[in-house]
Amino acid sequence: MSETVFTYAAPALKFGAGASAEVGHDLAAYGARRVLLVTDPGVAATGHPARIAEQVAAHGIDVTTYDAARVEPTDDSLRAAVAFARDAGPFDAILAVGGGSSIDTAKAVNLLTTNPGELMDYVNAPVGGGQAPTEPLLPLVAVPTTTGTGSESTTICVLDVLSLHVKTGISHPALRPTLAVVDPTLTVSQPALVTAAAGMDIVCHALESWTARWYADLPAKRPEQRVPYCGANPIADLWAERALTLLAGVFRDAVRDGSDLVARERMAMAATFAGLGFGNAGVHIPHANAYPVAGRVRDFRPDGYPDVMVPHGMAVALTAPAAFRFTYEADPERHVHAARLLDPDVAPGPDALPSVLTALMRDIGLPNGLAEVGYGDADVDDLVAGALQQQRLLATAPRSPTDEDLAAVFRDSMEHW
Predict the structure, then answer these.
(1) Which residue segments constitute the domains of the chain, with CATH numbers given?
(2) In sequence order, which residues have a C-beta less than 8 Å from that of residue 331 and are 6 or more positions away?
(3) Distances in Å between the alpha carbon of 108 and those of 121, 149, 169?
(4) pTM of structure
């Protein structure tokens, strides 16, 4: 039997310039008296977390700050954050200020300070135990400072498991933030390549949720079996289309001129809309591929980032053109429609979406394929093995890939232009 039900959920949302100044009011409304603020060193250096902490304290709320979240979290970095929170607590709310890495770190802290067990108990199977939380989590307020990850809207915490050289995640509806506070003025300090990489995450969130397998084409599930990623559906489609329309008009401008406040606001809105879409419909092959691309990096150090890494949005984008060429035959009309939202003049056909993405990646300064971040044909088998561990994502692909299909996508992604 096929599924007849789709689900939709989202956090409460506050959007607009100056919204971050109201977080103290919001936390007080949740009855918070002791709050843990989670951020990373780079965001802390901007002064935004300290300013927000001061404004929260003005409402009579005690704030403890953890400013050592790692950009692209690892199992070790999440354990360190959890240990800090356990020693410094108890708290009655969590506040995340930063990019997806800070927000994901806050999700892990929230989970593991309210529920028994350790990190790997909750990591998605087959990498971890896939355990579900049994106790309620604390209110989590997420204040993004980058435009891309959508973590402020989603049920996902992404991490690298260092010993396995694999990127994976924890996924459960309880992880979704209680409130997303999106203040576009916080994103002005993003370096150009951070804007580009995070922005490609928005693009792929929207494209993957739009092209995901239709919810009614998936097998029927009992209520307790339903997962947050339920397949493309009418509500997620609305968010994806609007996100792509916004991106088409401002993405290049936001990368070229970080002080363009109109572009920044529309990028923040696109990120929010895409997050509200893919957080329910799901993502598929480009994101599944991104996990091993990021998890097996050797020595690539991108501008504007503090360490050797392939940033998440960049890792997703690098195989997206080839992935959408592979999925085209599942629904040509949807693929061409999405391409024309980004470029109305593109010619129809299997290369419509790949050509639009390649042109965009080139214009915003992303690397020219996997080879430029250090991979070659000898790495393909390991990359395929890593992607195959992401069955939660591959399950929503509109066309199910074999090992050989994924290998072809990786090989076709070594160089784009």
Answers:
(1) 18-182 (3.40.50.1970), 192-412 (1.20.1090.10)
(2) 211, 398
(3) 12, 16, 10
(4) 0.92
